[in-house]
Specification:
By secondary structure, the chain is of the alpha/beta class. 52% of the residues lie in helices and 14% in strands. A three-stranded parallel beta sheet has the order 1-2-3. β2, α3 and β3 form a beta-alpha-beta unit. The longest helix has 21 residues. The chain is globular and about 35 Å long.
């Protein structure tokens, strides 16, 4: 998926999730989907989600660890530091367990 597509998909997913959370804010909280193909856009989307949509942070699911993935997580953590109110969950999993 291209960076532009990822930005659009993440924004749409977060808007849909925010609408669902608004129905039962006493029961649900949201973690943002971020367009990790573009770390700057990911930080902007995280800021939008926390400040405008009321999300509590972001979820970064990954199937691999490496320099590129670490840099993307660092961008997420950097944005969280600027917000000072959110959580970043990094969930690594193995697609092909042994």
């Amino acid at each position: 998926m291209s960076g532009d597509q990822a930005i659009a998909v993440a924004r749409q997913a977060n808007d849909v999730l925010a609408a669902e959370v608004r129905k039962r804010p006493d029961r649900f909280a949201a973690l943002a989907a971020l367009p990790m193909q573009d770390p700057e856009a990911a930080a902007q989307e995280l800021t939008r989600c926390v400040k405008e949509l009321g999300f509590v942070g972001a979820l970064r699911a990954t199937t691999r660890w490496g320099e590129a993935s670490a840099m993307r997580v660092a961008a997420c953590v950097g944005a969280l530091g600027a917000l000072a109110v959110a959580t970043c969950v990094v969930h690594a999993y193995d697609l092909f367990p042994v």
